[in-house]
Amino acid sequence: MPAVLTRPLLWLCAATILLAGPVAVSSGQERPYRHDPQPTAVGHGGAATTVDGVATRAAIRTLRQGGNAVDATVAAAAVLGVTEPFSCGIGGGGFMLIREPDGEVTSFDSRETAPAAMTPDAFIEGGTPLGFDAARYSGRSAGVPGTVAGWDEALERHGTLSLREAVRPAIDVARRGFVIDQTFFSQVEGNAAFFKDVPSSRSLYLDPDGTPRDVGTIQRNVDLARTYRAIAREGRRAFYRGEIAQDIVSAVQTPPVAGATRTWRPGVMTLRDLRTYDAIERRPTQTRYRGVDVYSMAPPSSGGTTVGEALNILEGYELGSLSRTDALHRFLEASRFSFADRNAFVADPAYFDVPVGGLLSKDFAATRRALIDPARAATSPVPAGDPRAFDPAGGDGAGEAAASVTRAGTTTHLTVSDRDGQVVSYTFTIESTGGNGIVVPGRGFLLNNELTDFNFDSTTHPNRVEGGKRPRSSMAPTIVLRDGAPYLAVGSPGGSTIITTVLQILVERIDLGRTLPEAIATPRAAQRNTASTSAEAAFIDSPEGRGLAALGHTFAPTAEIGAATGLEFLADGRVLAAAEPARRGGGSARVVSGGG
């Protein structure tokens, strides 16, 4: 009887032959991996697009070996935890949106939670809220990580591989290493002063003189490889109940600093907090726009409700018949008013009665649209509306106006599809670039600073700090269906600019005639109910930017907004995968067959 290789064994054999560009290494050494940007690909059999070529190749290899889109997403995400460690990883959390081949759309919330002992005044000392850096670089800012639980739940319910099989490619990348590029170098450089305080962070990411390792040198992470191996052997239990859990709690309760000249405040996370963590399968948000159905993430993320509300406002205009300046004026104003409502009414639904139905009501959108002056920008902050009156479920949570949190989080986003029609849009993060600055000693991953996503300067806001609560997010993984079939899947990192980035891509593609690659590449602006609109230089300097300034818009320059990835499902059965051509060093888009 001939020998037959099972899929798991085939996978183990294939895991160490992920493609990588040639890198000069010493004789006898294994070749390290390297990011190779490729912004677009078109073909059949499934597709994947991430910010990193190594991760995208891991996803494509998984699909070619018979895995589905969820399997490929987790494989790529685990690799991103190695190659994009300042944006994401197992020390954080995220939101995964899945469209199944039968048309069902569901989502998994693996958002971090506040430890049970946290109180609304956790970041207030002497009656004064801590400054952001003082709150962030501490054990106190770390929420209970949800990423591993989220991967496990998604694989168990919608995947075909085990967690053991899915993380195997990442083990090899962590062990062999990858070539440091300019983006990685710059992200280390921005954290170097804080990494120096933490020996485990310093030894992993800095040279002995305390400076970032040079571009072109090799970054390895043997501790993370060992951590992934433990998860592969024991599953999620290894992370939430074993020695890894103890090491996380120790790093949070007693930040592992040495020779620090600043205060690193302790946190209150316990083993019970980790042991009782659950990833939650949630019903996504849905809104109808120009004949397509737009699905995204429900609270505690504000992504789905805010993008949906803005689209509902914009639906009242024939954007395609307007000048580009006038269309973008309405885009910015719809975002401004939607953010006012987001800031007041979105929080963890287990702690606050979020009026989701009202926020996504067409009638509520009409009341907000009526406040937009087609010839003049409004002055922010504009007040929130009252979506509760339009909520069929009778949401009665009392909102509280608040300025938008405008800090940029790094985060990462990936989109994946398979040959059977399963589509995944997944955003995950450790919050700020470099999280809270603490690499768990001996474990090789950074902890998040997600609890600074609470309105931590308030003890009354719906998004205030509370034990067990999930902080409000802006992540907006999005899948668009046309007549029940996949049409678009998009998402982006970028803190609260995630919402505006996804919204702008949808408007550019659906209304303004841009192709998906053009919609992703086009200069961006982000209005979040703030006095000035954050915008890239190319946007400000464009004819539309000058025209918007004449309408009263003021701009605050920023280097770049977001780092999106997306898929478009073409009429001939092919898939177009698109990533950033330049932002964050350029992304990587590939297909199973026909173009990469």
Task: Tell me about this structure.
- Helices cover 33% and strands 16% of the residues.
- The protein has 596 residues and is of the alpha+beta class.
- The strands form 4 sheets. Strands 1, 2, 3, 8, 9, 10, 11, 12, 13, 14, 18, 19 and 20 form a 13-stranded antiparallel sheet that branches.
Helical stretch tally: 20
Number of strands: 20
The fraction of residues in strands falls at 15-25%
Largest sheet: 13 strands, antiparallel
What integer value in Å does the Rg equal? Answer: 23 Å
- Looking at CATH, the homologous superfamily of the domain at 303-345 and 355-396 and 527-557 is Gamma-glutamyltranspeptidase, large (L) subunit, C-terminal domain
Low-confidence stretches: 1-28
Q: What would you say about this model in short?
A:
With 596 residues, the chain is of the alpha+beta class. It is built from 20 helices and 20 strands. The strands form four sheets. Strands 1, 2, 3, 8, 9, 10, 11, 12, 13, 14, 18, 19 and 20 form a 13-stranded antiparallel β-sheet that branches.
